[in-house]
Automatic annotation (TrEMBL), chain A:
The keyword Methyltransferase does not apply. Residues 119-270, 410-544 form the Nitrite/sulphite reductase 4Fe-4S domain. Keywords: 4Fe-4S, Heme, Iron, Iron-sulfur, Metal-binding, Oxidoreductase. Gene3D superfamilies: 3.90.480.20, Sulfite Reductase Hemoprotein, domain 1. Coiled coil: none annotated. Residues 52-111, 341-394 form the Nitrite/Sulfite reductase ferredoxin-like domain. InterPro entries: NIR_SIR_4Fe-4S, NiRdtase/SiRdtase_haem-b_fer, Nit/Sulf_reduc_fer-like_dom_sf, NO2/SO3_Rdtase_4Fe4S_dom, NO2/SO3_Rdtase_4Fe4S_sf. GO terms for molecular function: 4 iron, 4 sulfur cluster binding; heme binding; metal ion binding; oxidoreductase activity. It comes from the Bacteria. It holds the Pfam family NIR_SIR. It comes from Tropicimonas sediminicola. This is Sulfite reductase (NADPH) hemoprotein beta-component.
UniProtKB/TrEMBL annotation, chain B:
It holds the Pfam family DUF2849. InterPro entries: DUF2849. It comes from Tropicimonas sediminicola. This is Sulfite reductase (NADPH) hemoprotein beta-component.
Length: 554, 102
């Protein structure tokens, strides 16, 4: 497991002491809110609708039992006994009080954690595949590269004042679980002639102007990663529009200048950057790799999994919540934080402790947070799965719905977020309850429903098979549906289905979509997205709006 | 002709706790929407907002929000203000705890 080194610890202590003094000066009135706001944002502290919110970074979504217990402690001591895991692989506390925040940060620092949002127009936290280091389809663990990028970009003089913030996602597998096509730069590991390298994708992003990233380089040898990234950022820095904040993202640069132009200029800049790097990055990555230790896997015991499946409850869970591990006697366990009717991504302090204990006893002390707002135990022996499942069940964590309709991503929306135009959490919880009542999600199969409470798209609604965007239409909550979005390597932006639905109409509308899919699919093997791609929007629009509407549209 | 002024209240977040607060006629910050001073005159509303903004060491982000008179005092007009006056809908946290669930 990666550990912060001494330098980082000293840096954190200094930052925390600084912030403690700033909080004191804010409270005694010597700092105004205008002066304080940028300082608190730099330290992950936001002011939301009902309270402050502290956003704690979980780099690449990886943590161990000590860190998870620390998160539980914070939830209990300074919040209301729970935390909210987000789509950016962070955790948010919704109820801290301003004078307590310096203590929370000091407490986090004891285990090398922090809330520093590399905020501003710089390169943000690198997000990564939540199955990193465990997935059967993985070519290499992407986290050392993510850490390499973090070290390279932190305090890089040229990149402190980019036209706009810059987000990078990286996956070590050809199967994209990190939504690489919706980031400014996406890196998807692929192999060519037995050599590992990256497919480099630029110009993706969601928000106000959603765009799917384009492949700028189909194969970049792994050793040339940093000089190539640096070349992209050079070119972006030259082009990026600083006149308009909505147009300053690299997606707009690529769109306006054209991929070919940008590619030619990047390749030209790359000649120079490659020469400048002289292989420095290859030595650095070798050092970083030593810190990501592969656990000592214990062979044998795989037959226990098949035996445990005699229990139908275990079997249902195993069918949805397990994924293939690179070691044949292990499995990857996804723990659903989407119990029907519960807030997506929320975990109580008690649940966090159960997860920490399970990781320690049965999971080589590793945990991950996924952008789907679930928790992963990446390395569990098949021999231990039945025990792990039983313990999860006791803690209310054994919901068998990963990848199914009720495994909904939802942003905090207007229950917490000051920017929201409508609520998203109650739409998610009511929808999940309805799905549970209908008992149809296992029949419907893989279906991704994603909900955002405003156009910033923190809930990734654009890339949901069914996306829901909450808006304020003349003082009333209104929900717009998009269809056909895809967050994987075949990424697509969903298309608007038509007029929006009122708060009490949105759950029945989504129910009609699921029923329409069941009616129109060729057989069980054809997923929602495939049926949508084969038939187009027409049958789904009919399900939403009735036959007249379809005739109008035709 | 100028548009008629729609009544307002002054609201903000408490500096220490972050909780939603409302400016009362007797210059307190109340946690309860119904205790807010209903401002029916535009010039007076502007003055009250300035009064609020001067209290930087007590509150954050003061603004005027639409409100209407009700039997127990001012009531929110927009749903955002209604949520702010209660707390989140997924847990009985925030103001609704003290108010005994509305
Ligand atoms: C509640 C406090 C939050 C605030 C104030 C906030 C604000 C924003 C804003 C303003 C943007 C747009 C940035 C831009 O397009 O340049 C954004 C983007 C984003 N947020 Fe949040 N957010 C919040 C919570 C969350 C949460 C809880 C999640 C995860 C569940 C999240 C995930 C994201 C993601 C993934 C994006 C990037 C979308 C893109 O590619 O453009 N945010 N956020
Ligand atoms: S999508 Fe909008 S409402 Fe949801 S968390 Fe992001 S900014 Fe807030």
């Amino acid at each position: 497991m990666y550990r912060y080194d001494d330098f980082d610890a000293a840096f954190l202590a200094e930052r925390n002491a600084q912030f403690r003094a700033q909080v004191e000066r804010r409270i005694d009135g010597s700092l105004t809110e205008d002066e304080f706001k940028p300082l608190r944002l730099m330290n992950g502290l936001y002011l939301q609708l009902h309270a402050y919110m502290l956003r704690v970074a979980i780099p690449y979504g990886s943590l161990d039992s000590v860190k998870m217990r620390k998160l539980a402690e914070l939830a209990e001591k300074w919040d209301k006994g729970y935390g909210h895991f987000t789509t950016r692989q962070n955790i948010q506390y919704n109820w801290p009080k301003l004078p307590d925040v310096p203590d929370m940060l000091d407490s986090l620092a004891e285990v090398g954690m922090h809330a520093i949002q590399t905020s501003g127009n710089t390169i943000r936290n690198v997000t990564s595949d939540h199955f990193a280091g465990a997935a059967a389809d993985e070519i290499a663990d992407p986290r050392p590269y993510a850490e390499l990028i973090r070290q390279w970009s932190t305090d890089h003089p040229e990149f402190q004042f980019l036209p706009r913030k810059f987000k990078i996602a990286i996956t070590g597998s050809p199967n994209d679980r990190a939504v690489t096509r919706a980031h400014d730069i996406g890196l998807r590991m692929v192999e060519r002639d037995g050599e590992p390298g990256f497919e480099v994708i630029v110009g993706g992003g969601l928000g106000r102007t959603p765009m799917i990233g384009k492949v700028i380089r189909d194969f970049l040898p792994e050793g040339e990663l940093l000089p190539y990234l640096e070349a992209i950022v050079h070119v972006y820095n030259r082009y990026g529009r600083r006149d308009n904040k909505y147009k300053a993202r690299i997606k707009i640069t690529v769109h306006e200048a054209g991929l070919e132009t940008i590619r030619d200029e990047v390749e030209e800049a790359f000649v120079q950057t490659r020469a400048d790097f002289e292989g420095v990055d290859e030595r650095v990555i070798a050092r970083i790799r030593e810190r990501f230790v592969t656990p000592d896997f214990v062979a044998g015991g795989a037959e226990a999994l098949e035996e445990a499946k005699a229990d139908p409850v275990f079997r249902a869970w195993a069918d949805t919540n397990l994924a293939d591990h690179k070691h044949p006697d292990y499995a990857i366990v996804t723990v659903s934080l989407k119990a029907h009717g519960q807030t997506p991504g929320d975990a109580t302090a008690e649940q966090m402790r159960v997860l920490a204990d399970l990781a320690e006893r049965y999971g080589h002390d590793e945990l991950r947070i996924s952008h789907q707002q679930n928790v992963i135990l990446p390395h569990v022996r098949k021999a231990d799965l039945a025990t792990v499942h039983a313990e999860l069940k006791r803690a209310g964590l054994a919901t068998a719905n990963v990848g199914l309709a009720s495994d909904i991503i939802a942003c905090p929306g207007m229950d917490y977020c000051a920017l929201a135009t409508a609520r998203s959490i109650p739409v998610a919880t009511q929808l999940a309850e309805r799905i549970d009542t209908l008992r149809i999600e296992h029949e419907v199969g893989p279906l991704q429903i994603k909900i955002s409470g405003c156009i910033n798209a923190c809930g990734h609604h654009h890339v949901g098979h069914i996306g829901i965007l909450g808006l304020d239409r003349a003082g009333v909550e209104n929900y717009q549906i998009t269809l056909g979005g895809d967050a994987t390597e075949t990424a697509a932006i969903g298309e608007r289905a038509g007029p929006g639905f009122a708060y009490d109409e949105i759950v029945p509308a989504v129910e009609r979509l699921m029923l329409a899919y069941l009616e129109h699919r060729t057989d069980e093997g054809e997923g929602f997205l495939e049926t949508y791609r084969r038939l187009g929007a027409a049958p789904f629009k009919e399900a939403l709006y009735g036959p007249e509407k379809r005739k109008d549209a035709a | 002709m100028p548009r008629p002024f729609s009544p307002k209240i002054v609201t903000a977040n408490d500096l220490i706790e972050g909780d939603v607060v409302y400016l009362t006629a007797d210059d307190r910050w109340s946690r309860s929407h119904s205790e807010a001073e209903l401002l029916e005159d535009e010039a007076h509303a502007t003055i009250r907002l300035l009064d609020a903004e001067r209290q930087q060491n007590r509150i954050v982000g003061a603004y005027l929000a639409d409100a209407k008179a009700g039997p127990n005092g001012p009531e929110p007009v927009h749903f955002r203000e209604a949520f702010r006056s209660r707390g989140p809908s997924n847990y009985a946290h925030g103001k609704q705890v003290a108010a005994g669930h509305q």
